[in-house]
């Protein structure tokens, strides 16, 4: 009755299904103000959607005052990617520089951000609990939270540590060194030859480890040797260096935006993985907590 079902046929079916449903992916950018978050959001969309327009360098980026999401549907080879990026106001802006270094921490500084993340879980949960559920629940959950660390200083500040600890328990976190080009000439040269950069990256990696900040890709979710190999290469590069591309550069005769490759690493090979961990781990934790609460 059935013909042979090869793996290729199954993959084809999955591909067709993915084409039909499309792919939703949500990113959030977080960090102190002035680190280039909004520029990054713009660049990301420019590189994907407005490839033909030249970025306008004369108009300064207004300061971001509230959480703000931008969605674009990008179509590539028939597959629709609905990409939403949530820009956030500078976290800890009301805190003066000394406080960044002290442990006198005001919980309110990260409240709006954590609340937003949890609200999206709550919305999903409410949809899921309906007797008649939608076949496809719109997914606004944050799949990847990009955390901007300032380029100055050699390790994480206490406030970064405290916030990262909380974030990691709620969402997938990818730390990046912001404005990596604003290093001194010596630092930049050393960065190019990877002399100074590696120790700094190592320091931050050590910070993360000491404070049990489990950033993406989390070791405990490596499923096999291949995962371990690929992910350990990525872990060595944490935190990624990013450079805001308000300029276009000509590379090999092509016009490119500065940060494309760094994003590419996370984007292309790990989108589904980030979604799976969001659903199976972070959302699941939220769901269990909420359902336990409501049964008390
Ligand atoms: P936000 O507050 O984190 O959203 O930061 P903005 O995106 O508003 O950027 C603040 C300022 O930094 C702007 O003047 C940007 O042009 C500049 N900027 C953004 N990214 C970079 C970067 O990678 N390198 C340098 N040197 N400047 C940047
Ligand atoms: Mg901004």
Unreliable runs: 48-55, 258-267
Total strands: the figure is 8
Cα-to-Cα separation, first versus last residue:
53 Å
The shape, in one word, is: globular
Topology:
Elements: H1 7-21, E1 23-31, H2 37-48, E2 68-76, E3 79-87, H3 97-101, H4 111-129, E4 144-149, H5 158-168, E5 173-177, H6 185-192, H7 197-210, H8 225-236, E6 240-241, E7 248-251, E8 254-257, H9 260-294
Parallel strand pairs: 1-3, 1-4, 4-5, 5-6
Antiparallel strand pairs: 2-3, 7-8
Could you please describe the fold and organization of this structure?
26% of the residues are buried. The strands form two sheets. The chain has a six-stranded mixed β-sheet with strand order 2-3-1-4-5-6, with helices on both faces. The model is unreliable at 48-55 and 258-267 (pLDDT under 50). The chain starts with 6 loop residues before the first helix and ends with a helix. The protein contains nine helices and eight strands. 44% of the residues lie in helices and 16% in strands. The chain has 296 residues and is an alpha/beta fold. Bound molecules: guanosine-5'-diphosphate (GDP) and magnesium ion. Guanosine-5'-diphosphate binds next to α2.
Offer a concise description of the structure.
With 296 residues, the chain is α/β, with parallel strands linked by helices. It is 44% helix and 16% strand. It is built from nine helices and eight strands.
Comma- or semicolon-separated keywords:
296 residues; alpha/beta; binds guanosine-5'-diphosphate; two-stranded antiparallel sheet; 16% strand; binds magnesium ion; six-stranded mixed β-sheet
